[in-house]
Design a protein that fits this description.
The protein is an alpha/beta fold. The chain is about 45% helix and about 10% strand. The strands form 2 sheets. A 5-stranded parallel beta sheet has the order 5-4-1-6-7, sandwiched between helices.
Length: about 210
């Protein structure tokens, strides 16, 4: 494969953060006086671009400062004990950097928790650019963060690839006119997706 810019989604693609995300959402709900939701229910909805997540999880029209504060509070206190890289991801990133590719992250997580997570997991240094929810006007499925990364690294769309695990990622890539690979070891299951990190490594690194 020619040298490319390869952009990764974070949660469900690089990082198994399902427990932390579900627990953080329930922590916000607890602070708002709501009952906890089942983890499986949260994870089924967290990548659904057709819902309003603020309404679904917090009965609010939009996320507010308290939602972000409480979510980040839980994330900061618990990410070291709950977050893990999917097996083989670090070796995949090492292989791609060894081939000379630029690497980036586009995530709907906030920047603070993203940097904390990637640093704790010892992969932050692999990425040439990171675009987060609070870095752009609109998160995925809008293409804003993909455009931000392209501008920062001065790459064209035809030499860029986006890898994610859900419809938000796929729609964002289509809107940015970037090639896309769906993976299914995260929160969702897609019949046409790459099913293991090893298969993705063979596809990208050889």
């Amino acid at each position: 494969m020619d040298k490319k810019l390869i952009i990764f989604d974070m949660d469900g693609t690089l990082v198994n953060s399902s427990l932390t995300i579900a627990n953080a959402i329930n922590y916000v709900r607890k602070n708002l006086g709501f009952e906890a939701m089942e983890q499986e229910y949260i994870l089924r909805l967290v990548n659904d671009h057709t819902i309003n997540p603020a309404q679904t999880f917090y009965h609010a029209k939009v996320f507010d400062a308290d939602h972000e504060k409480w979510f980040s509070e839980y994330y900061t206190k618990n990410h070291e004990s709950e977050l893990v890289l999917y097996e083989g991801i670090k070796e995949l990133l090492e292989g791609l950097k060894g081939k000379g590719h630029n690497l980036a992250v586009a995530t709907n997580a906030y920047r603070g928790s993203t940097i904390e997570s990637l640093t704790h997991l010892d992969v932050h240094h692999f990425f040439d650019s990171i675009a987060c929810y609070d870095d752009v006007a609109q998160g995925k499925p809008h293409p804003d963060m993909l455009h931000k990364i392209l501008d920062e690294l001065d790459h064209s769309t035809h030499e860029t690839l986006f890898i994610g695990d859900g419809s938000r990622d796929e729609i964002a890539s289509q809107r940015a006119e970037i090639d896309y690979i769906m993976v299914d070891w995260g929160f969702t299951d897609h019949t046409d997706a790459v099913r293991s990190v090893d298969d993705l490594r063979k596809l990208l690194v050889g």
